[in-house]
Each structure stands twice: as C-alpha cells, then as structure tokens.
TrEMBL record:
Source species: Marinomonas aquimarina
PANTHER family, per the entry: GUANOSINE-INOSINE KINASE, HEXOKINASE FAMILY MEMBER
UniProt keyword list: Kinase, Transferase
Protein name as it appears in the record: Inosine-guanosine kinase
GO MF annotations in UniProt: inosine kinase activity
Lineage, broadest ranks: Bacteria, Pseudomonadati, Pseudomonadota, Gammaproteobacteria, Oceanospirillales
Residue ranges occupied by any Carbohydrate kinase PfkB domain in the UniProt entry: 135-294
EC number(s) stated in the UniProt entry for this protein: 2.7.1.73
Record bears the keyword Kinase: yes
Annotated gene: gsk
Length: 432
C-alpha cells in the first residue's frame, strides 16, 4: 500500500520485503488490506437532443424524470443510432469513492452491488467496467438479468439539462450475496444513505446486514449522506443508523444542516459528533472540516494560526491523531479546517464527486493505519488505538488536494494519483 498524503519523503510499507508470489486481482481477506463498499451501480450518459426528442419520449424538460427500463432502453438505443452520446461516466457515490481510493492507495477495494450478467460491447455496463480501476475487486458483485442503473442527461440547444433516470436492477443485491469474511477482515466498510429510500428492495436489507457484520467484527463504518432532500426525508432513521453503527459521517454543509438543524457549519459538525467518532464536512468555497476525538493525554497543539468561529481557537489540537471516544481515558473534541487548495481551481469543470474524493483520501489514511498496525504492531504509533494514521490537519491537507483534482476535471473519478512533482506554489502550500 502506498503511504497516504504528501510528505517530503515518500513512504511505502513494508519498506523492504521480497515477494515471489504472483499478485491476485481478487481480495484475499486474511492477507490483503482493503476497504469494502456497498453501492447502487449506475452509469451516467450525457447526450445532446432537441425538444422534439423530449416530447416524443414523454420527457419533461428541465426536470428529473423517472422512466421504466423499457423507456430507458428505447431512449438509449435512439441516442446510439443517432450518435448523440458525448460521454459515459461510471457513477455511484461509493463506486466513485472506491475507485479513487484504489487509485490513491494503489491497492485493492471490494465493490458490493449488482452487474448485468450479459454485457455488450459499448453498452453502459461495458463503460462502467472500463472506467473503474482494476484494483477494485468486482468478484463479489451479484449478477442480474437486467441492466444496472442509467442516469441519462439530455442537453438541449439552450443548455437546459433534463434527466431520465432508470434504476433498473441496481437495488436488487440480496443479503445472501454478502460474504461475511470479506467484511470481517476489511479495514473499513463504506456506504451511503441512498438505499434507505428503497424499503421494498433487497438493497436495504443488504445494507443492514453489512452494517451488523461490520459492527460485530469491529470494522469502522463510514456513511456518506447523499443529498439534502434525502436527509430531510429520512433524518430520524439516518440519525439512528449513525448512532448505532457509524464511526465516520461524511457530508456537505446542506446535508449537515438537514441532519443536525444547525446552519453554522462548525456547530453542525460538533452536534454530529454526539452520534459518531469523526465527521468529514465539505463546505464548498469555505473549504473542509475534519472533526473528531483524541485522548487528552496525547493531544498535540497546532503550529498553524489559531482559528475562531462559534468555537474559539477550535483548531488548537489539530495535530492530534483521531481516536474513538471509547479508546480514550479522557476524550476531547478536535476540530481542523482548511481553505480550498490554492484557492480552488482556476476553472471548475465538475462539482460532482469532490466530496467523494475527499472521503477517499480519509479512507486511504484509515486503511494505512490498519495496514501499518498489521505490519509493525509494536510501533509507537500503536501503543494506543487510533482510527487513522495521520493527524487531523494532515488528513485535511490530503483530502483537500484530492478534491481539487476532482474539481479540475470533468469526471468524478481520478485517472491517476496525485502528481509526483510539486511546483513552487505547491511546495509553499505543503510546507505550511
């Protein structure tokens, strides 16, 4: 596993170790370090159309239209025949996060979900597989007879975007398809709140089984919230699940307000800490926050300038490493914040997936801690239990950098890791 974040010296663990065995693409639970994620597998299709096309298919302009599998297939086939499709993007909050994790860590992850049993060349399913890192283990996907989800974005000449959404079979993953060993030996289990919308579909029961297994085997659970409207509709259930299972909650400022009722970002993060061990909160132009706990005996003061908002000098202990309150004798709350990297990209090409990118960096650090503890169990880094390898402040820098890369490109998925070389502006940034 590649060591997370940017350092003056690159680290790899173990530093020297011969390995004569051939690498395997499938995760070996008792040998590999990996994370597991459950997702609704979906492909985003981008196409240009005219208003007559929308009318012919009964699609309401400028809205999100839920369509049947038959309608989606007819729309897609016509788009292919008329060569109107400009791009296919593999989608899904967790699919994006796992892909980016595997790119950053150069290591394995496991995707739980569904995939069509029969995949045609240039089909949406084909593009999903092509756009996903080879390090993402798909051996545990459940085969289905139908299509995976399709989100078709139809752009008219006036620039208006209209959406035709076909869930298809993306919510049909059954609890029986989950391998307990895969979750029990994972460094972390990550999922989103979207399956809660589908009480009549197998995916919700599958989600609850995964959460129960992760809790049983003391695997950290990371939950990302999805959208503000979803949180508003299912707030009580989401709060209950977070309180019972979650180690980390990832959300943006709108989702944080919907969850906690607090409009002030830092106070929303503080309130969420009553239900979980750590909060990753992305707040657009405001930057991002990472909040959690550490033991009072091992807290480390920052050398950065102190910041005050609703909480005075809130970042004073940001050089501490995250811990669960249950692993602390005297837990104290820790808050870290960082402004957008280099002030943000000169041109933002894509806001979809920036939060997922930040989460993938946090997951990389959590997995690195798990790996290092296995490889060097007597290291001073592990005399007490920690949730992640690096400090709150260092994780913030790493997550911020990954978000910048996502914002700078059109796809929510990284095509490669972070640049190996830094220019003078970057060097000054990382030296802070």
């Amino acid at each position: 596993m590649k060591f997370p974040g940017r350092r003056k010296i690159k680290h790899y663990f173990p530093v020297t170790q011969s390995n004569s065995s051939l690498p395997k693409s499938e995760v070996q639970p008792n040998q590999d370090t990996y994370i597991v994620g459950l997702d609704e597998t979906i492909v985003d299709v981008i196409a240009t159309v005219d208003e007559e096309f929308l009318a012919r298919h009964g699609i309401r302009k400028g809205l999100s239209n839920l369509v049947t599998p038959e309608q989606a297939s007819a729309i897609y086939q016509e788009l292919v025949i008329e060569q109107r499709i400009s791009d296919h993007f593999a989608g899904g909050t967790i699919g994006n996060t796992l892909h980016n994790y595997s790119v950053l860590a150069d290591d394995k992850s496991v995707l739980l979900g569904v995939m069509s049993q029969h995949i045609a060349l240039n089909s949406p399913e084909y593009h999903y597989l092509c756009a996903t890192s080879s390090k993402v283990d798909m051996h545990h996907l459940q085969g289905v007879a139908g299509d995976i989800g399709r989100g078709i974005t139809l752009i008219t000449a006036d620039g208006e975007r209209t959406f035709a959404i076909a869930p298809n079979a993306m919510d049909d993953i059954a609890p029986e398809s989950v391998n307990e060993d895969v979750i029990a030996n994972a460094a972390a289990f990550v999922t989103c709140a979207y399956p809660l919308r589908h009480a009549g579909k197998p995916i919700k029961d599958t989600l609850m089984k995964c959460l129960a297994l992760a809790k049983q085997h003391q695997v950290p659970v990371i939950i990302t919230l999805g959208t503000q409207h979803l949180v508003e509709e299912y707030r009580d259930e989401i709060q209950s699940i977070i309180e019972q299972y979650a180690s980390v909650v990832a959300m943006n400022e709108q989702e944080a307000e919907a969850l906690t009722g607090e409009a002030q970002t830092l106070l929303a993060a503080e309130k969420a800490l009553q239900w979980c061990d750590m909060v990753l909160l992305t707040a657009g132009a405001e930057g991002l926050y990472l909040c959690g706990y550490t033991d009072d005996q091992s807290k480390r003061g920052t050398t950065h300038a102190l910041k005050s908002q609703a909480i005075s000098d809130f970042n004073q202990w940001e050089f501490s490493r995250p811990q669960r309150p249950s692993d602390c004798d005297t837990p104290i709350k820790v808050y870290s914040h960082i402004d957008p990297y280099l002030g943000g990209p000169a041109q933002i090409h894509n806001t979809n997936g920036a939060g997922d990118g930040a989460l993938s960096a946090l997951l990389h650090d959590i997995a690195a801690n798990h790996y290092h503890q296995q490889q060097v169990p007597h290291s001073s880094k592990h005399t007490t239990q920690h949730l992640a390898y690096s400090s709150f402040a260092q994780i913030c820098k790493y997550a911020n950098r990954v978000s910048y890369e996502i914002l700078s490109q059109h796809s929510p998925r990284l095509s490669k890791g972070l640049p190996e070389k830094e220019d003078s502006l970057e060097q000054a940034y990382w030296a802070r």
